[in-house]
């Protein structure tokens, strides 16, 4: 028999298991994880007038901004850390009806703490991009950040006598800027243990072992509640960079290849690129840097086909993870095959022991490149 359990940890800096009064009052929880943006969460509590939550814990600051929250789901004996975040907002709605008062707590993953202080002007002499990112992440070790930094294909090390790199904006702004300049992404992924966060700085990877397939229209094997596809001709773009010729100062357009070793095509028939878009600011860059930025952007620009749907985790048998591959079966030869999971929203109802997910998938075109999708 498949089982599911939820665990909530809360507290300043190092969270501990939530008091029973808090766990019992939790009505629902929602966690959103998406490629290209910070993860967020929202917790909804029922608050009785004379409950410990209302009379003691709320006034004592248990849900104040800055409090750390870890939410876990144990599915079939396997723990899944869904969120390690920081409370940023609370909303209390009293009601004249007994037991109908609610407290809504909203927050973001712990990377939000990296974007609160403007540290413009910090020098990084003779430090590569990777060393700068590592130095910044080391300041947040208390949040359990474990750096996973992929070296740049073409390292750029500035000599102190020639130039020195200076930080612009907050730590989070600066890391995102460095990621953009190298065609990379930066995000935090909670787990595998509570209190630990993988800090990934590198290319968006769309390869690896796919997750169990999402089955639609397959009778007893169906494991999704809904699934629909969309092919939008205005979505896919052909990117190009304007390279400035050093002698004549003329801007020469150079198309950016859509192939990346980290994100190979998932479909045999790519959707046509009806739009031509020039990479902003590329004319002022070194040609090699401009192409590196462009290849990173081209990966996202190829996503002409999107799919959205929902599933029950207990029927699916595990938690569908974002930023990974997943197979689709039962929709027909045009849309079956592997997809990249762009975003996942976890919807939890601890009282009913319900755990559902809504998701968004993407790939470059029609007809699967894989002859068979792993069930």
Automatic annotation (TrEMBL):
Q: What is this protein called?
A: Phage protein D
**Key word Signal present in the record?**
yes
Q: Which organism is it from?
A: Terriglobus roseus (strain DSM 18391 / NRRL B-41598 / KBS 63)
Keyword field = Signal
Extent of the signal sequence = 1-20
């Amino acid at each position: 028999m498949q089982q599911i359990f939820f665990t909530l940890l809360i507290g300043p800096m190092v969270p501990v298991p939530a008091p029973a009064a808090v766990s019992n009052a939790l009505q629902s929880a929602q966690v959103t994880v998406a490629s290209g943006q910070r993860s967020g969460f929202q917790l909804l509590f029922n608050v009785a007038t004379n409950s410990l939550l209302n009379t003691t814990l709320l006034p004592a600051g248990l849900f104040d901004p800055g409090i750390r929250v870890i939410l876990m789901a144990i599915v079939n004996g396997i723990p899944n850390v869904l969120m390690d975040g920081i409370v940023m907002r609370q909303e209390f709605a009293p009601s004249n009806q007994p037991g109908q008062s609610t407290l809504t707590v909203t927050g973001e993953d712990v990377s939000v703490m990296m974007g609160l202080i403007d540290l413009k002007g910090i020098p990084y002499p003779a430090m590569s991009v990777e060393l700068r990112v590592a130095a910044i992440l080391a300041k947040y070790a208390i949040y359990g950040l474990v750096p996973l930094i992929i070296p740049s294909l073409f390292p750029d090390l500035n000599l102190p006598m020639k130039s020195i790199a200076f930080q612009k904006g907050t730590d989070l702004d600066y890391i995102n800027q460095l990621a953009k300049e190298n065609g990379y992404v930066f995000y935090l992924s909670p787990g595998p243990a509570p209190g630990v966060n993988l800090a990934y700085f590198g290319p968006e990877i769309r390869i690896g072992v796919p997750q169990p397939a999402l089955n639609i229209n397959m009778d007893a094997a169906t494991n999704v509640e809904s699934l629909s596809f969309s092919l939008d001709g205005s979505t896919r773009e052909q990117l190009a960079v304007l390279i400035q010729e050093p002698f004549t100062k003329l801007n020469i357009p150079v198309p950016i290849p859509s192939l990346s070793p980290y994100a190979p095509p998932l479909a045999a028939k790519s959707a046509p690129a009806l739009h031509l878009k020039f990479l902003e600011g590329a004319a002022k860059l070194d040609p090699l840097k401009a192409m590196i930025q462009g290849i990173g952007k081209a990966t996202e620009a190829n996503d002409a086909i999107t799919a959205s749907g929902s599933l029950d985790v207990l029927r699916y048998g595990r938690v569908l993870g974002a930023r990974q591959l997943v197979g689709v079966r039962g929709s027909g030869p045009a849309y079956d095959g592997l997809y990249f999971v762009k975003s996942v929203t976890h919807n939890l109802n601890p009282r009913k022991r319900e755990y559902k997910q809504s998701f968004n998938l993407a790939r470059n075109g029609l007809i699967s490149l894989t002859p068979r999708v792993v069930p």
